[in-house]
Amino acid sequence: MLLSFLHLTLFTNNNRYQLFETNKLVEEMMLFANITVGKRILRSFPSLCVLRRHPAPSAENFTAFIQKAKSKNVDIEIETSKRLSDSLDTATDADVNTLLRILVTRCMSPAKYFVAGEEKIRDWHHYGLASPIYLHFTSPIRRYADVLVHRLLAASIGYGSLPGRFTAQLMNEQCDIMNRRHRAAQLAGRASISLHTKQFFLNNSTVCDAHVVDIDKVKKTLTVLILKYGIEGKISLENEFINNEKEAMNTFLEWHNEGVAAGDDEEEEGDKAGGWQKGEGNVEVCTSFTDTGGRTISVFDKIQVRISVTVDEKTTERTLLIERVVEGEGEEDEAVGSKRKKAGAGCSSSSGGRKKRSKK
Known about the structure:
This protein has eight helices and 14 strands. It is an alpha+beta fold. The chain folds into two domains: 10-195, no CATH class; 196-350, no CATH class. The strands form five sheets. Strands 5, 6, 7, 12, 13 and 14 form a six-stranded antiparallel sheet that branches. The protein has a two-stranded antiparallel sheet with strand order 1-2.
């Protein structure tokens, strides 16, 4: 059983939450319970069982990820989910390991509920958990899919009778509803995180460490992840205004609606100089570059950033700003402030921030 494949570090009160072996043991037992219940229901109701599948991602989705990992001497193998998990374990640097596990989820499509009788057996596989079948059984108090599964299990073991309304058509409709509701819940969660994170940083401009996770040499932007706060956003290397909330939502919707790997850039024309590497699928990947000050920046490098928000004077709308803090450039604040006012069209500077996906 593959347990730690998508296992990310938990954070609480801006500190990393320590996980113990007992946490993994409980997770293992829950996974085994879900798989065992799925096998039992399939024997009794093969056309009604509500399963959850996670399609294997396309190899092209991993192109940028593989090149970024290779820049830190981590060789990623994607032939199977087990080999991918094992290759992630070879990243010995704690921060790089965490970043890789966050980024790898963006190479994958979202998992979906479906009715067993509506899909071919070869399409039942759950890639992330390396299991041929999987369903949700262990949390009926918070997921309706688990409630349906409990009713099917009760009927399959003779504890209760199968509800007469449980037809293949009804179950298929329920799966469609659950998938839509799950997406809506994710959007609501992101909006709530955005609201409260910006409220937290309001009038509290903060300078902290961030890790570079993507470099766009053409657009001259860095995508950074701030592990301390779980915030992600883009930084303009030319002090241009970037609406990180809009960028984050567009990327998330693209990933969820189309199954496109979130965080992957569109192909851009460029050369191979300055860290550009040609990956599979003709995707250009920039792993390092040199800025106008002669400083070399590479993916996974740690840099300092300032988190703040602009507040529109007319609408009071708050917008995320993440700015690179360069040591020794004392005039940077005035230059950034001037550009911010022009780009923000009536925005006044105040402090704040927001959380972007993570795109797990």
